[in-house]
Amino acid sequence: MNKKFPEGFLWGGATSAYQIEGAWLEDGKGPSIWDVFCMIPGKVINHDNGNTACDHYHRLEEDLDLIKKTGIRAYRFSISWPRILPAGREAVNPKGLEFYNRLIDGLIQRDIVPWATLYHWDLPVALEMEYDGWLDARTGEAFVEYAAVCFSHFGDRVKNWITINEPWVVAILGYGLGVFAPGKKSNTLPYLAGHQLILAHAKTVEVYRKQFQPVQQGQIGITNNCDWREPLTDSPEDRAAAQRALEFFLGWFSDPIYKGDYPEVMKQRLGPRLPVFSPEEQALIRGSSDFFGLNHYTTMYASDASGKKEAVSVYGNGGLSEDQDVHLSIGRDWKLTTMQWAIVPWGFRNLLVWIAERYENPPVYITENGCAFDDQLAQGLVHDPERIEFFKGYIRALAEALDSGVDVRGYFIWSLMDNFEWASGYSKKFGIIYVDQALNRIPKTSAEWYRRIIETNEIGS
Ligand code: PNW
What we know:
This protein has about 450 residues and is of the alpha/beta class. The chain is built from 15 helices and 15 strands.
């Protein structure tokens, strides 16, 4: 049976600055922690880096036309902080402003709604060196300053703002497992970094609401990422383990925003390792998102590991599992993408229902969902039936969540084009547009398939 989406449902595509722009040291841009992290041998597969990436910075006009051709109605991009403020604060780089002005104007001319993310992980190196990055509140102050520059220069045309992309990834992969910049390994620093990220988000929203929103009339929120955790068995212990895992993953960042404080289970288990919000901070944070931005990729089974001293999950995306006493596993028959992430559409539906129940049915935008496969160019074409299957399953699950009353307003595929996949370099392809060695753009069959979904506003079985 075909499922129709609500009128006005927003269909989009997403990218981020470091992953596509290139031009890493041009036109006055300062270095970011990802520019430097990539120089360290062993951090990124094949010693790849984003120095050129998709060369989007120089191919802007071509890419704008390409975006138009995909049929997407909204385009989510991120702004490179060190392109706007090369030293992290104070001096503004006019060439940086000019680039994003051209991007935003080009989208609007083509009738595509801009969605701008302020922080998608490319912290100015200056702030890492001076302040120790997200471990210090001064980085948050600099973020507010940078955000205000963006609001004042772009806010007349950008009406949809995302403060921070996936603070969980920044905290866990950047400060816990050390696999993303700035590469720190610790079981205390992630909770400190997470704390500063939440505060920086809330202060930025306060500035937007006070100084810009009344005139500019846009919306602002944060994007969190979360996998689904399904109890491995029906036992009370495994059900509690799955719930605990979700609270350590999504509750960590969403509870402060919707309830004003961290989940009780995190406070109990982490004790003094979890910083405390003052009553004033709680008041500032509570309600600091106009919508619930969600990035979702996969599902795992959760079972209780209390007393078993579980090591850090081999899958990485469990977080610091020893803090949770949760064992993660995957289904025997689940298919995997090349990220080794399992394809489980029903997990997406369950997660959306969980969010609606826990946070009183907020308006949700899926700001990323997608998959990597080993796509090949053959006779000028790229057939990617697995990606079409993936999207079919996940978009149907989304339609089912809507049927259950979850208030989903939009969906952005990750990604518009193949790009620099962080520690995996260019070895993982997430795009609906293939980018070859010479950086030519070749739409995959999934691009045509997605365009039909957008045009008909429905999904078949
Ligand atoms: C997200 N995990 O990253 C990012 O927002 C994108 O920039 C990225 O390209 C995309 O997902 C695909 O990886 C994630 O370990 C990285 O759970 C790691 C995880 C989740 C999301």
